[in-house]
Amino acid sequence: MKSICTLLFLFVSLFVSAQSELVKDIYEGSESSGIYCNFTFTWNQDCAVQLGDKIIFLAENFEAGRELYVIENGEISLLRDLNNDPSTSNPRFMTVYKDLMYFIADDGSGFKIWQTDGSDLGTNIAFDFGIDGSGSGDYTGFLISNELLFFEFEGTIYSFDGQDLNEVEYDGGLYVIGSSEYGSRAWCPYKEGIAMMDYNGDSWDLLYIHDGLVDSLTNIDVDASFKNPYGLAAFEGGLSFSFDASFDPEIQGRYLYLDGGNPFKQSDDFTRRVISVNNESVLLYGDKEFILYNEDNQIGNQVLTGTLTLAQGVDWNRVVTGEYLAFQSLGGVFDDDVVSILNTQDGSIKTIYEGDDLTRLYPFGDYLFFFAEDQNAIFNEALYQYQISEDELIQVEDFTNSNANRYYPLGIQDGWLFHFANLDENIGTEIYRTKVDLGTSTDDLKPELNHDYSWLRKNSNTLQLVSPLNESYQMDIFTLDGILISQMEISDGDHVTIPYTGMISLRMKNKNFIHTTLKFVSEN
Predict the structure, then answer these.
(1) What CA–CA distance (Å, rounded) separates 414 from 436?
(2) How far are the Cα atoms of 47, 103, 140, 152, 364 from residue 70, in angstroms, in the given order?
(3) What tens digit of pLDDT does each residue of 136-151 get?
(4) Where is 443: in which H helix or E strand?
């Protein structure tokens, strides 16, 4: 019997009225098309991304192998068979940058960098370095910093601004160290560029790469004999990183570099499990401690100790939505899966779910979705929806099939959550969709907003909001995949430009219970 937090049921309300429906059987017969990204693989990544109003995801069948598929207007189609035969092109590192998705894939002659707008004709090779047989290990994933896309290929760092590709010149090459077990790497976005740890043959240099230049921030006198840095993360005022040096306890541990100073060892415990949120660095690891670094507290603030153990993975089970970080960990006597929400503004942590069999967390604006154990029938699975602003967890649907890894959220389109599920053993794991309630629609908002749409003005790729509100509102602007762009307070007569494809969240300043999310999708 599982250990369940009884307080949790005080804010869990159940409505099991939704019903999942099959959208497409990609791998005909009883074979499964579902691809699951294992925590322990180097190419640790999401299996799906939201590109504008499209959802692009990995799937496979007999004819094409493992390829990219796209959900558009509720329909699912193969994006392109990149190598035109049943062997897999194995797309990896799916990253959205300037309205295109970049990824690496093997077209039969080796891995290259591709870009796509979500259409067949708009899927092309972005960068081919002319080396036949190059493997996925010759590349890193992508970093986005200061509106530039960074990546490494065979010891060279490149930056791309959407038009020009530039090589960062540096004697001896620049290799980004990565952990195959945890997917954690020794580089990160930092200030106007990126920071990285590089081995110079005798010791490690902490470098700052920006404007095509390489500045040395500091040097760490540690050799590379079974000693590697991981988990580099930036916050306002410094960087944190760890050395994995199990054969040298004097070296192993977590280090801190404060801008302009010298790095120092802060703890004997190291972590590869780290994420930066809104210029703050959150380190989550083991059953030791959860530390939040920020500009006001550069040494770190211990926000939670000894109660949770972070589950495996880097990006899989941690997602950022606005000022919040949602993450999965383990806790309790039975090592239950725990879903928590960290408020990066005040450092508070709130547990929203404790059960078992949790799969990938999926954020969408003010909402968080995940599949996990049904708390009313522990041998079943359920789809959960949590609204952050209302602190409300609801169970959208329960499933009698208890194999949790068969459920995987892909994305939301037109009020439907598309997901992998195995609800019929005769067709295996395939694509289903479930209707979800995302709050007030624009039609329902008309009485609150002067009964018409005059407050919205369309431009080529943006909407301009002309506020007719009599009250002051807090407005958060998000991309469609829930990334916070900006926050502001608006009142009567204010003019605000928002993306034509995206979301805004409105909260009346003096009436906290009034909250709504509007979604705008380009018709082009």
Answers:
(1) 10
(2) 12, 15, 24, 27, 18
(3) 888 888 999 988 999 9
(4) helix 442-445
